[in-house]
Amino acid sequence: QVQLVESGGGLVQAGGSLRLSCAASGSIFSIDRMGWYRQAPGKQRELVARITMGGSTNYADSVKGRFTISRGSPKRTVFLQMNSLKPEDTAHYYCSASIGYGLSPNYWGQGTQVTVSP
What we know:
By secondary structure, the protein is mostly beta strands. It is 0% helix and 53% strand. The strands form two sheets. Strands 2, 4, 5, 6, 9, 10 and 11 form a seven-stranded mixed beta sheet that branches. The relative contact order is 0.32.
């Protein structure tokens, strides 16, 4: 089992920045990839960014050039630096962890709220 704990959400004005953190515990050496997803009210959960333990990344088109995902030390810590935030980035952000490279993560955190005011 893997447990994920997020931190760093909050309220920010458009154009501002926030940094989300996620720490994994438990069977962390089974993790191959970690990521961030988000879900806005009335919308489906969507991928924001993810990173493999080897460092390969991919991003949603809507956040490319504004968000950066990175790993910490130990590697099963992941960050999401969010710059140039827009009101449409408002959502509940969830950390994820995957065993293997399947479409859906195996584990989810409780999430942290990000609210961007106009």
